Amino acid sequence: MKVGDKKEGFLQSLRVDGRILTMLIVLAVVWMVFQLLTLKQPGQFLSVQNLWNLSVQTAVVGIMVGGMVLVIVARQIDLSVGSILGFTGMMMALIQTMPPLGWGGHWLLALLAGLLLGALIGGFQGYWVAYWGAPAFVVTLAGLLIFRNASFIVASGRTIGPLDDNFKVLGGGIGGSIGEFWTWVVGGVMALLIVYQLLSNRNRRKKNGLPVRPWWAEAVVMGFLLALTLAFILVMNAYTYPGTNIPRGIPVPVLVTLSVLFFLNWMAQNTRFGRYIFAIGGNPEAALLAGINVRRTLVWVFALMGFLAALAGAVQAARLNFVTNSMGNLLELDVIAAAVIGGTALAGGSGTIVGAALGALLMSSLRSGMVLMGLPTEWQNVVLGLVLLAAVIWNTVYLKNRRGAV
Amino acid sequence: MKPLVEMKNICLRFGGNQALDNVSVNLYPGEVVGLLGHNGAGKSTLIKVLSGAYRADSGQIFIEGRAVEINNPQDAQRLGIETIYQNLALADNLDAVANIFLGREKRRGFALDEESMELEARQVLMRLRVQIPSLRLPVAQMSGGQRQTVAIGRAIQFKARILIMDEPTAALGPEETRKVGELIRALKAEGVGIFLISHDLHDVFDLADRITVMKNGRVVGTVYAHEVSHDDVLGMIIGGVMPKNARPAEVPRTP
């Protein structure tokens, strides 16, 4: 023990969550392998175009996965997110599309109504779980059935579109990016946040006499995060509109995803609400005895999940321009898989937003790479299933080892 | 002197089971009342009524002579009643600071004020004189004694006047048990009233001023700890009868 204290290994000095680090390594390996496998074809995996598209493809799952982490941390599950996404997306399309198909409302009204609807549906499901003790698995399975088919019923089975041009900005298509200048602004803000966060963390730990990274390790971590930010900005600005030299910049849906994930991460770690979700997941009885309003907290968790599903629905609808009644079908599986691959334990009480975000990125990277290679969908799904299996086994082993070590 | 806690004629029924049948107990400032009885005698149910986890069907609770309604744990906390549960009601995935402040976190704006919580937690745990390796480690990674210290620290942090301890030493080694004993004496000296539930007769005789024995949801009787023998108390627990020659102890022992 004493010896270990004196001479820490490289990884111990970095003090990075082992699971996050592993995810990053796996992600890097996957990207390299796909690049090598697609080297001889026109659309390479690490081409600017593919990376830009990859970021948009990750957005929909990325928006929802943070909410799913909180749901699972609280020992619950939500199987209805794909259906809520489809139903709220359909309602938003109906409100803004011109008659006779739609109702001809303002696109902003459509968006706000859709988000509210999503939160209400989530809260409604949460109510039965929290106040009636109904298992979330069954309640949200019912929700999956109800809202998947409700979206068929409200649209009489038709495909609804085209959507308002202002609304479509959310989808990241033509005009759906923030341009070169604002991309640099966003990048600058991200860099400042990274530096501020790391330094204030370090100062606080030092003040409280807690161990901190050595300076060189702090520099490595900060340098890595800043380099990642810079690479992200450069890639986003390197992709141009067809036939021009005008950079697109960060797509709006990706900006939405990053904002949502940043906010959820902050909320999970720095607010009472976040703290209570983890307390409920760790020991529901203790949470109750500590005077936490467990039921109300659970309703809010489900309402938040519903809201995020609706937000993802808006992005998906805006991306597709035409909403079909199968939009978001089976997406709940992708979201849950991304959360689990990102290290969220289904037993509750443990999970991180950052890990889940990386999980979502890994899933969409695998999917995108396999599409580029021309692998049939069936094989894509088999591979994703195997990755999910490997992730959950690795998680179990990791948690067991950590308990055993103490 | 007014009793700190007076529970009068408390009844509680779970389905067909009369868990508490006309139970009356009291507790004075600066004294330890031991609650004894078999499993299912109603001790834990009784304290859960006092701590707001259960609601009594009938009966009254007085705190310092004032009739009160305790409908939930928050009500109990507001009245200065803190409970340390047998199963150590801690969230294992959270650290010591988060557990000590759980449900009553300090905030700056919307964000948790981690620094001042950590500082106060450090002071409280220093008072308990138990070494905790890191306040920022999940309590799952701590020993039984360290976890118990966190649970007790939680109660002290919020200036409990009435402390309920359900088997506080069940999970502890001898050294840690001794420390908890010291702690109970220190709290007594500060005027805190303590209900002590334990299976360990030695512990109870060591720490309690009065002993209330329950059986099948009823109070067998209350005796002064220094006036009865272990066998007398065992007779109360098993046979449900007051020992001969023992006087009922409705008020604290006058020194």
What is the H-and-E element order of chain A?
A: HHHHHHHHHHHHHHHHH
* Fraction in beta strands of chain B: 25-35%
Instruction: Estimate percent helicity of chain A.
Output: over 70%
Largest sheet of chain A: none
Number of strands of chain B: 12
Number of domains of chain A: 2
Structural class of chain A: mainly alpha
Strand order of the largest sheet of chain B: 6-9-10-3-11-12
Which homologous superfamily in CATH is the superfamily of the largest domain in chain B? P-loop containing nucleotide triphosphate hydrolases
User: Largest sheet of chain B at a glance?
Assistant: 6 strands, mixed
CATH class of the largest domain in chain A: Mainly Alpha
Number of discrete helical segments of chain B: 8
What gyration radius of chain A follows from the Cα positions, in whole Å? 22 Å
Q: What is the level-2 CATH architecture name of the largest domain in chain B?
A: 3-Layer(aba) Sandwich
Q: Identify low-pLDDT runs of chain B.
A: none
State the largest interface: A-B, 25 and 32 residues
Helix proportion range of chain B: 25-40%
Beta strands of chain A, count: 0
CATH topology of the largest domain in chain A: ABC transporter involved in vitamin B12 uptake, BtuC
Structural class of chain B: alpha/beta
How would you summarize this macromolecular structure in one to three sentences?
With 406 residues, chain A is an all-alpha fold. Helices cover 73% and strands 0% of the residues of chain A.
Structure notes:
The complex is a heterodimer of chains A (406) and B (255). Chain A has 2 domains: 50-176 and 257-406, ABC transporter involved in vitamin B12 uptake, BtuC (Orthogonal Bundle); 178-250. In chain A, 73% of the residues lie in helices and 0% in strands. Chain A has helices spanning 2-6, 10-14, 18-37, 48-73, 81-96, 107-132, 136-154, 165-168, 179-207, 215-238, 252-270, 272-282, 284-289, 294-320, 331-341, 353-372, 377-405. In chain A, helix 4 (48-73) packs parallel to helix 11 (252-270) and helix 4 (48-73) packs across helix 16. Chain A starts with a helix and ends with a helix. Chain B has 255 residues and is α/β, with parallel strands linked by helices. Chain B has 2 domains: 1-81 and 184-249, 3-Layer(aba) Sandwich (Rossmann fold); 83-157, no CATH class. In chain B, strand 1 (5-14) and strand 2 form a beta hairpin. At the A-B interface, helix 12 and helix 13 of A face helix 2, strand 8 and helix 4 of B.
